[in-house]
Design goal:
single chain; seven-stranded parallel sheet; LRR_dom_sf; F-box domain-containing protein
């Protein structure tokens, strides 16, 4: 799958993506029949009207629903595809398997019944077809490396917000490509990525200069080694919010936090010494982990007696002790 996405070029003709959109239309609505004749002149709506319809179609829709609606819309005809493939900035496109969606709309229900292989094909087609969007979310086992490569190539330069959840087949290689393609990235969330080891963290925190929020959770095998090795060379960072949960922190994580001088919002678990580092290095720590947010490692000292916690409370009085 990864090799296939590498064949795409930024100025590649759109016929392949159009064929994929047509394939989705067949999956969604059945075999299509072309009723036009060569002797008749086709009548089209003005592009502005088509664009208004597409905008209305995704208004207030969840990201996953918006994707399905847009692909069905693009399958109507060439004009609608040419207009609707350029999504308005600010619209979030969701590559979501919709496992937890209970929606009566027939197009959504038909998409839900597709196999994971078919859903991945639909996602890949959409990634190669749609452009213009600045926010994207990925959810479920149909999210693949070649999908992330395609998104990085098509819209990476404009992405502002990225969220990945329960994408169990995604690897560091694809995730690194995605974050490196996104110099404007401001918000990043990653949760439950079973095959990710942490190579994406350094290009994310050090390479995305506009990043203000990073959230990584439930990735026990995550390693911060690359960040620890390079953080001495980091320049000032815009990061103000950092959430780190169940990702295998150790006592040296404070080295990284010491380089994030603009942190004002911090949530983490792990050794209590990390709480001390947060209190010492957050410039305006108006929200450090409170009692329900602090989880010492099994066998570690309680935060009511740990020297790190005592120092943290001295530097940040609003930090509440953990109570079992």
């Amino acid at each position: 799958m990864g090799a296939a996405c590498q064949e795409l070029r930024p100025h590649e003709p759109e016929h392949d993506c159009s064929d994929m959109a047509d394939a989705f239309a067949r999956l969604n609505f059945g075999t299509r029949h072309d009723t036009s004749t060569s002797g008749q002149q086709e009548v089209h709506l003005p592009d502005a009207a088509v664009r208004s319809i597409a905008t209305y179609l995704v208004q207030n829709e969840p990201p996953g629903h918006a994707l399905v609606h847009l692909l069905a819309f693009c399958g109507v005809c060439r004009q609608w595809r040419a207009v609707a493939r350029e999504v308005n900035p600010g619209v979030c496109i969701g590559f979501d398997v919709l496992e937890n969606t209970f929606c009566s709309q027939s197009s959504i229900q038909r998409f839900r019944r597709l196999s994971m292989v078919q859903k991945e094909e639909v996602f890949y087609a959409a990634a190669r077809l749609l452009i213009g969007y600045t926010e994207v979310s990925f959810f479920g086992e149909a999210v693949s490396d070649r999908l992330l490569f395609a998104v990085a190539l098509r819209v990476g330069a404009k992405l502002v917000k990225v969220k990945l959840t329960n994408a169990k087949h995604v690897t560091d290689t694809a995730l690194c490509a995605l974050v490196r393609s996104a110099p404007l990235l401001q918000y990043f969330t990653a949760e439950e990525l079973d095959r990710v080891q942490g190579a994406f963290l350094e290009p994310l925190i050090n390479g995305c200069q506009l990043l203000t929020m990073a959230h990584v959770a439930n990735i026990p095998s995550l390693s911060w080694t690359a960040c620890k090795k390079s953080c001495d060379k980091w320049g000032p960072k815009c990061l103000t919010k950092l959430v780190v949960r169940t990702v295998g922190l150790d006592e040296s994580f404070g080295i990284i936090m010491s380089k994030l001088g603009n942190l004002t919002d911090l949530e983490l678990d792990g050794p209590a010494v990390n709480i001390k580092a947060g209190a010492l290095h957050c410039s305006e720590p108006h929200k450090l982990p409170r009692r329900e947010e602090i989880r010492p490692r099994r066998g570690a000292s309680s935060l009511t007696t740990h020297p790190g916690a005592q120092a943290a409370r001295a530097n940040c009085p609003q930090l509440c002790p953990y109570r079992r």
